[in-house]
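User: Predict the structure for this protein chain, please.
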Amino acid sequence: MVSSGVLWTLTYVMIIRQSFRDRTYGMPLAALCANLAWELIFSVVYLSVSLLQAGINMVWLLLDLVILFQVLRYGPRERGLPPWAFFAGMALGLATAFAAVMLISLEFHDWTGAYAAFSQNLMMSILFVAMLFRRDSLRGQGLGIAVSKLAGTACATLAFVWYVPAFHGSVLLRFLGMATGVYDLLYVGLVYLAARAPSLSAVFRTQQNPQVDHST
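Assistant: Here is the predicted structure, written as structure tokens:
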């Protein structure tokens, strides 16, 4: 869990740095809403984890607040919306995410936040891939971010599935962890390809065969 905390913290820091450089935001909006809700609940509202994990959660919350600032600053232009409409959408998303995380934890009687965290992590991994295709560029993203996210999630999966007795028999957590790993690996590969080409679409663009001159 310490390794996961360090790697995810590094991921957030790199997202923030790259986003300021590119004048955009580097985390999908729904993922940010879910992260903020989870971190607020499990670092402020409901403390049932170790003191170390509570401290890590608080660090994540503070870093995600910086990412939220970037979203509010660059988001309306990025999404082509009036500021009031974008801000209203973000407020609705945050409220929905807060309720969802609370209800998932209540439904599973899980006040460590594991089921909610792994569920939203899978969502986040899918959305990172979608954001890369939508932007067709590496703005706000990078290979270091992708690798650090993959490694952090792998450490968290190992920690919960193999080392936390309460979750040893959880087929759901195993699935969520492995599925997230698949999308994270896909994201790493796509970011690597995008970094070596003018754009991601250029990687998949069908090249026309040159006309062959049959004249002699």
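The longest helix spans residues 51-79.
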